[in-house]
């Protein structure tokens, strides 16, 4: 069987059928040979022995008829009847010669030729004696007695010799026919025995080939069926061993690879299903946490959206306030400019007052000098009045009054001077302060301009910020909507994860029905 397994099924069946056909051809050839032998024997029997016997029988019949007619002629007294018998006799002689001529081509073998020659010799001898008998018969009654003697004498013995020669040849042909029949029977029996033996051998070889070929096909197929049943029952640990290079061996090897790959695949599917189950469980838990966080985030986003709306409103108000502040800053800048101009005018006025105070001081100095001189003059006048005595008393009184007036004028001038000096100092201080205030007002005007610019920039930025906050608000609103959708998707994902976990567990349950090896 191992040799047959090295051949493909087509070649194997072809060899088996070829062997059967060779055996059939051998049986047919042997049968044809035996039939040819039997046919030769039968043909020899039909074309040689039996026709020879039949022709010898015709010769014997013609000879017997000739003998009978000769004897009747010897016994016949009527000339007419006798003449008719002679004609019939001559016809019988011709019939014998005709039968002998027909028989001669079928002679086979020297012995038969010798027997035929004996018949011809005996026939010639008989015809010689018979001719004398016929002459005696033709002689009439005078030869009647002689004819009887001839009929019972030499012609009788010669006819007996002829009959014996014919019988010997008939016996020879019968024996040949019997031998041919026996040979045919022997050929038939021998052919039957050999045919039966060959058929038995052919059957044995055919059965052996059929069994071997059948086993070489059914054994691996049965092995494949058992392996398939084991796989169908969930046993993937089965190992399939294939021998040979035929189709069933290829099938077994392919099934072996299939079972190994299926075992590996089922093992991977089992591991993957467990991983999927665990992963889906974790995903479900994560989705639950994510759903909770998403809901919290959605709530926070709603609050953020509300806060953004409030912030948008506040920024809008700030933008309006910034606009108002910008306008107020512009007004303040104008007012500061006017204040600067007023301070400048005040500084100039204070400079004028300071200059006037200085001039008043100079005038007061002049008045003080005049009062001092008046006092000196009054003092001189008093001295002169004192010198004049009684006559200068009135003048002394006037001089005293003038002196007192000069002293009061000097005191008043001194007070005025002091006041003028203090006022001048204050005016100088006020001028310096007014000048400083002017410089400060200029800086204030510049700073108010800068503040106005900044407020304008702040107003523009606030407007942009208002637009940006509105966009942020829209984005937060959209994000809130997306978050709500994400929350719904998370819930759907959680449901899908639960379904996936259930399906993975079901898959693991289904895969657990298979038994796989450790390497699978």
In CATH, what is the homologous superfamily of the largest domain?
Answer: Methyl-accepting chemotaxis protein
CATH topology of the largest domain: Helix Hairpins
How helical, in percent, are the residues?
over 70%
Report the end-to-end length measured between terminal Cα atoms.
34 Å
Number of contiguous helices: 7
Q: What is the typical, i.e. mean, pLDDT?
A: 78
Total strand segments: 0
* Pattern of helices and strands: HHHHHHH
What radius of gyration results from the CA coordinates? 87 Å
Structural class per helix/strand content?
mainly alpha
Unreliable stretches (pLDDT < 50, length at least 5) are: none
Q: Regarding quaternary structure, how should these chains be classified?
A: single chain
**If classified by CATH, what would the architecture of the largest domain be?**
Orthogonal Bundle
Task: Based on Cα principal axes, name the global outline.
Answer: rod-shaped
The biggest beta sheet is recorded as: none
Strand residues, percent: under 5%
CATH top level assignment of the largest domain: Mainly Alpha
How many structural domains are formed by the residues?
A: 2
Task: Explain how this protein is built.
The chain is rod-shaped and about 285 Å long. The protein has two domains: 220 residues, Four Helix Bundle (Hemerythrin (Met), subunit A) (Up-down Bundle); 259 residues, Methyl-accepting chemotaxis protein (Helix Hairpins), CATH 1.10.287.950. The model has no long low-confidence stretch (mean pLDDT 78). The protein contains seven helices and no strands. It is mainly α.
């Amino acid at each position: 069987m191992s040799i047959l397994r090295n051949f493909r099924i087509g070649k194997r069946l072809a060899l088996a059928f070829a062997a059967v056909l060779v055996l059939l051809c051998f049986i047919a050839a042997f049968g044809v040979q035996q039939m040819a032998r039997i046919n030769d024997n039968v043909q020899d029997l039909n074309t040689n022995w039996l026709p020879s016997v039949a022709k010898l029988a015709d010769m014997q019949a013609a000879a017997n008829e000739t003998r009978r007619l000769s004897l009747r002629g010897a016994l016949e007294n009527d000339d007419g009847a006798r003449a008719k018998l002679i004609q019939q006799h001559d016809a019988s002689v011709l019939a014998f010669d005709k039968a002998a001529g027909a028989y001669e081509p079928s002679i086979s073998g020297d012995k038969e030729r010798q027997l035929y020659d004996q018949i011809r010799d005996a026939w010639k001898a008989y015809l010689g004696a018979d001719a004398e008998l016929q002459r005696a018969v033709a002689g009439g009654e005078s030869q009647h007695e002689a004819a009887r003697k001839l009929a019972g004498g030499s012609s009788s013995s010669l006819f007996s010799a002829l009959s014996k020669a014919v019988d010997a040849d008939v016996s020879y042909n019968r024996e040949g026919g019997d031998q041919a029949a026996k040979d045919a029977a022997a050929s038939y029996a021998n052919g039957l025995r050999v045919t039966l033996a060959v058929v038995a051998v052919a059957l044995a070889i055919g059965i052996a080939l059929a069994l071997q070929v059948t086993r070489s096909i059914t054994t691996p197929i049965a092995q494949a069926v058992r392996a398939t049943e084991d796989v169908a029952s969930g046993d993937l640990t089965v190992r399939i061993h294939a021998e040979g290079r035929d189709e069933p061996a290829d099938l077994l090897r392919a099934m072996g690879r299939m079972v190994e790959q299926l075992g590996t695949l089922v093992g991977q599917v089992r591991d993957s299903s467990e991983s999927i189950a665990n992963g889906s469980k974790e995903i479900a838990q994560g989705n639950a946490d994510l759903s909770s966080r998403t809901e919290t985030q959605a709530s926070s986003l709603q609050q953020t959206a509300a806060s953004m709306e409030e912030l948008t409103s506040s920024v809008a108000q700030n933008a309006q306030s910034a606009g108002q502040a910008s306008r107020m800053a512009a007004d303040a800048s104008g007012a500061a400019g006017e204040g600067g101009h007023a301070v400048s005018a005040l500084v100039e006025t204070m400079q004028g007052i300071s200059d006037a105070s200085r001039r008043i001081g100079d005038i007061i100095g002049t008045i003080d000098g005049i009062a001092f001189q008046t006092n000196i003059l009054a003092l001189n006048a008093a001295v002169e009045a004192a010198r004049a005595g009684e006559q200068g008393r009135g003048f002394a009184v006037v001089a005293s009054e003038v002196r007192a007036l000069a002293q009061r004028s000097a005191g008043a001038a001194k007070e005025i001077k002091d006041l003028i000096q203090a006022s001048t100092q204050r005016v100088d201080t006020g001028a310096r302060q007014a000048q400083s205030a002017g410089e400060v007002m200029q800086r204030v005007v510049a700073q108010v301009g800068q503040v106005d610019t900044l407020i304008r920039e702040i107003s523009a930025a606030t407007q942009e910020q208002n637009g940006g906050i509105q966009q942020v608000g829209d984005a937060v609103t959209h994000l809130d909507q997306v978050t709500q959708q994400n929350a719904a998707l998370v819930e759907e994902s959680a449901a899908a994860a639960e379904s996936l976990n259930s399906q993975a567990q079901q898959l693991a349950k289904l895969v657990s029905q298979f038994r796989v090896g450790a390497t699978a």
